[in-house]
Specification:
39% of the residues lie in helices and 25% in strands. The strands form 4 sheets. The protein has a 5-stranded antiparallel sheet with strand order 7-6-5-8-9. Strands 1, 2, 3 and 4 form a 4-stranded mixed sheet that branches. The longest helix has 28 residues. By secondary structure, it is of the alpha+beta class. It has 15 helices and 15 strands. Among the domains are: 125 residues, 2-Layer Sandwich (N Utilization Substance Protein A, Chain:P, domain 4), CATH 3.30.1480.10; 66 residues, Nucleic acid-binding proteins (OB fold (Dihydrolipoamide Acetyltransferase, E2P)), CATH 2.40.50.140; 56 residues. α2 packs antiparallel against α4. It is elongated and about 130 Å long.
């Protein structure tokens, strides 16, 4: 019965845990041998035979036959009298092999053996999970939401392994309930208290890269290369692509007919606005494309400081900057250049630069106005009051005071 109990325990682990046959047999034999050493002082004269298919095992002990008076170690030797009880033909110097029953070890030893077996297999399973997911870092995995907490979500993969999706790695508009299917990338794998901790992410740029590989065959096949990705999760992303085959339009291939290919990616990312642009080694052209949809009039590049001064028509400034400065910030990250936006100065002898009002308007307010592309008094006055407040994030009283000062200049 004890044999059956142990093999049942072993079979349960084999059924539930993904450990290969050879490793399992080795673990089982090691556990048995550790008990033999504890019980008899050595395991060298024992043969452990494991039959996984039949679900049983046998332990055989080999002992040398000695004269009754010469018996010193009952584990390694057997007296002639005892040997002949087994078979009357045995003689001194021969070897006797007899089976050792597990029940002879005692109940405590059997309990320890079972616990050691469980502990060894659990340890192997942890190593297996750690190694498996360590090799999957940066790959997309799919799992089912098992538990939702305030700071993280517990997800189970198809083998029942536990994966963690922290709140910080979720898209702000993500909302999951128990039973939902979630896609994310394996962000990092750690050992915490000797347990594998698999952290997932839906906000990392590589998640967007993997989605492109899944949805766009030309990227998967290597015909189109993703040169860079920057994103503000759930808001906006910019993806620079390049094709080494002149017959392939990389942007068109990624977007698809009427956006058919990119639509699934946008939906997965909670309607994140994705700009796909052609990569170029021509810095000016690359920056122009990165600031899409704004149309650039002129660019001055300062290579030594990695800065770019971009000049646009007044109506294009807000497009270049984007909501909350998002477009220009992502364009800077994508190209690696700090981008400053300037309005094209129109011929107007009456206009006055904002620096002329330094005595009446504080410098930080002038900087806030410049940040939205306003360099002159008329630039500011041409923007409606409410829009100024919204785009500069200045207090209403501050904007009103600025407008009052600027209007007075032309009265």
């Amino acid at each position: 019965m004890e044999n059956i109990s142990l093999i049942d325990t072993f079979a349960e682990f084999k059924e539930l845990k993904n450990i290969d046959r050879v490793t399992m047999m080795s673990v089982l034999e090691d556990v048995f041998r550790s008990v033999l050493i504890k019980q008899y002082g050595t395991d060298e004269n024992f043969d452990v035979i494991i039959n996984i298919d039949k679900g049983d095992f046998e332990i055989w002990r080999n002992r040398a036959v000695v004269e009754d008076a010469e018996l010193e170690d009952p584990n390694l030797q057997i007296s002639l009298t005892e040997a002949q009880k087994i078979d009357s033909d045995y003689e001194v110097g021969e070897e006797v092999t007899d089976e050792v029953k597990l029940i002879d070890f005692g109940r405590r030893a059997i309990l320890n053996l079972r616990q050691n077996l469980a502990s060894k297999i659990m340890e192997l399973e942890k190593d297996h999970i750690y190694g498996k997911y360590k090799d999957k870092i940066g790959d997309i995995v799919t799992g089912e939401v098992y538990q939702v907490w305030k700071k993280e979500i517990l997800i189970l993969d198809d083998e029942g392994n536990e994966l963690i999706l922290p709140k910080s790695e979720q898209i702000p508009s993500d909302y999951f309930r128990k039973g939902d299917t979630v896609r994310a990338i394996v962000y990092k794998v750690e050992l915490r208290n000797n347990n594998p901790l698999i952290i997932l992410s839906r906000t990392a740029p590589v998640f967007l890269e993997r989605l492109f590989e899944l949805e766009i065959p030309e990227i998967f096949d290597g015909l189109i290369t993703i040169k860079n990705i920057v994103r503000v999760p759930g808001e906006r992303a910019k993806v620079a692509v390049e094709s080494y085959d002149e017959r392939i339009d990389p942007v068109g291939a990624c977007v698809g007919m009427k956006g058919s290919r990119i639509h699934g990616i946008v939906r997965e990312l909670r309607n994140e606005n994705i700009d796909v642009i052609n990569f170029s080694s021509n810095t000016q052209l690359y920056i122009k494309r990165a600031l899409n949809p704004a149309k650039i009039s002129n660019i001055k590049i300062k290579e030594d400081s990695k800065k770019a001064e971009v000049f646009l028509k007044p109506e294009e400034v807000s497009l270049a900057i984007g909501k909350g400065g998002l477009n220009i910030r992502l364009a800077s990250q994508l190209t690696g250049y700090e981008i400053d936006v300037y309005r094209e100065m129109e011929e107007d002898d009456d206009d006055v630069t904002l620096e002329e009002f330094a005595d009446e308007i504080e410098s930080w307010i002038i900087d806030a106005l410049k940040a939205i592309g306003c360099d002159t008094a008329k630039n500011v006055l041409n923007i409606p009051r409410n829009e100024l407040i919204k785009r500069t994030d200045l207090e209403e009283e501050t904007v009103d005071e600025v407008l009052k000062v600027l209007k007075a200049e032309f009265e």
